[in-house]
Amino acid sequence: DFMKEECCQRAIKGAQSLGSKHAEQVLKDIETYKNEQKTIAEKGKTDETVRAHGPNPVNMIVVKLNSGDIMLYSPIQVRDEFGFAEWLEGLGPVKWVVCGSSSHTLQMPSVVKRFPNAQYVAAKEAWLKLNRYQGFGDKKLDFDSTDKEDLKKLNKIMENEGAKFFSIAGDVITNA
Question: Tell me, what's the pLDDT at 170?
Fold first, then answer.
């Protein structure tokens, strides 16, 4: 929560470790966030106040593994009406889904529904958050990315796929 000074200081400190340019950008981002929250608090959360701050694009990474299977990293909603689902499924079977952040889980319920047989990788905290969504179902987390033993098992499987997972403990914001 960037309205809390402690959170802001952690973000700034993390950015400073990457250089002054990054620290300056984080300061701008925090200021923008605080101004947005102030506007929403004053006028209410309406379509107008939320849209006035511009689009908040979400990106997904699609990885084609050595086997031909597909891995989705930080998935967006896979929709039929624009041909995206057909295109994606034409690349190969979606066998892996990685929820890369505890902060960006909004699309996961629709992805789990669409790809119920995929293997799911996420921080335990992200999965616990998802289990609170009504209608999420009882899908179990296949690999906890913050558990060393799960990570070891996952990387053993991924050896032949040309991929390797690393968990970064203490990530400033996302618990990725």
Answer: 60
Closest CA to 158 of 77, 73, 101, 41: 73
Distances (CA, A) of 1 to 33, 152, 168, 174: 10, 32, 20, 11
Among 43-52, 107-116, 127-136, which range has the highest average pLDDT?
Answer: 107-116
Per the structure block, which two tokens stand in for 6?
């402690």
More confidently predicted of 134 and 17: 17
Q: What strand order describes the sheet that includes 143-144? A: 61-64, 70-73, 94-99, 119-122, 143-144
From 45-59, 74-88, 113-127, the region with the lowest mean pLDDT: 45-59
Residue type present at position 172: V
- In this structure, is the dihedral angle defined by the CA atoms of residues 102, 108, 109 and 113, taken in order, positive or negative? negative
Rounded CA separation 144/151 (Å)? 7
pTM of the model: 0.67
- Report how far residue 145's alpha carbon sits from residue 121's, in angstroms, rounded to the nearest whole number: 6
Question: Rounded distance, CA 159 to CA 146, Å?
Answer: 19
Averaged pLDDT, 25-48:
82
Q: Which two tokens stand for residue 158?
A: 């991924």
| Cα–Cα distance, 101 to 160 (Å, whole number) | 25
